[in-house]
Amino acid sequence: MSFFGVSGMYYSGESLGEHRIVLAEDSNLFSSMVSKRLKELFDVDVIVCRDYEDLQFAVENASFPPALAISNINLPGAANGEALGYLIEMSVPTIVFTGSFQESTREAILAKDIVDYVIKDSVFAVDMLAESVCRFLTNQKHHVLIVDDSPTARAVLTTQLRRYNFRTSSAESGAAALEILKNNPDIALVITDYNMPDIDGFELTRRIRAAHGPHQLRIIGVSSSTNRLLSARFLKAGGNDFVVRPFVNEEFYCRVNQNLDTLTKIRTLSAKTKIPA
């Protein structure tokens, strides 16, 4: 099966029907549209929960836990967002699908460590939700290496990327990163800090590029510096993107997705034209 996402994602692979998805949505219209679209695109059967009691039963009485939940913020029986808190407490990765959205709403739901949110404000909303679902269910095939000498920074990025269902490795130095890359040829993306004691981000990028072409992996540089020229130096060293800390969650996830989407397209083209890996 093949799927083209609204933001440019392309998925071509096996059915995703082995995954169990719970949809907490009291609107007959949206629950029908979402269920039909996910079945049509990915062969996924959706368990629809009309209220909080249904949701609790679906999560707690299943033979195996759901891979993902899609939930409105408010449900009958949970008018103050209790459903999201419950899903997070039960360790169910959750995408919020909501029609009411303000900046305060965004802050509240992101504080609950959700996977993503989609707003019901356009004709593309259901397809955007389908793309978010597809990304989460397939992100596990991507291996991301985080390089930073700060344990806190590594932990933050690792937590964030694992929330999106990526596989991750981390390195506290440039030298350690090069060793991990040598032993893990499946790494598709390197996210590296600029300021490190042994090999800075620029030199690490140059060394990675000497061994791995852009059709093999992508490199994103990160820094909390206000020096606007750092991004130019990363790009000239062979990097593909640059993000300034502190990250905006949505922008960071978008940049990661765009780089992996590009890599997937390059690999697909390389395979068709038989370019050596």
SSE inventory with pairings:
Blueprint: E1 2-4, E2 10-12, E3 21-24, H1 28-42, E4 46-49, H2 52-60, E5 68-71, H3 82-89, E6 94-98, H4 103-110, E7 116-119, H5 125-138, E8 143-147, H6 151-163, E9 167-171, H7 174-183, E10 187-193, H8 201-211, E11 218-223, H9 229-237, E12 241-244, H10 249-273
Parallel strand pairs: 3-4, 3-5, 5-6, 6-7, 8-9, 8-10, 10-11, 11-12
Antiparallel strand pairs: 1-2
**Biggest sheet, strands in spatial order?**
4-3-5-6-7
Distance between the termini: 25 Å
Unreliable segments of 5+ consecutive residues:
none
* Helix-strand pattern: EEEHEHEHEHEHEHEHEHEHEH
Shape: globular
Proportion of residues in extended strands: 15-25%
What does the model show?
The chain is an alpha/beta fold. Helix content is 44%, strand content 19%. The protein contains 10 helices and 12 strands. The strands form 3 sheets. It has a 5-stranded parallel β-sheet, with helices on both faces. Helix 1 crosses helix 5, helix 2 packs parallel to helix 3 and helix 7 packs parallel to helix 8. The longest helix is centred in the C-terminal third of the chain and has 25 residues. The mean pLDDT is 93.
Annotation keywords:
277 residues, five-stranded parallel beta sheet, 10 helices, 12 strands, 44% helix
Brief digest:
By secondary structure, this protein is α/β, with parallel strands linked by helices.
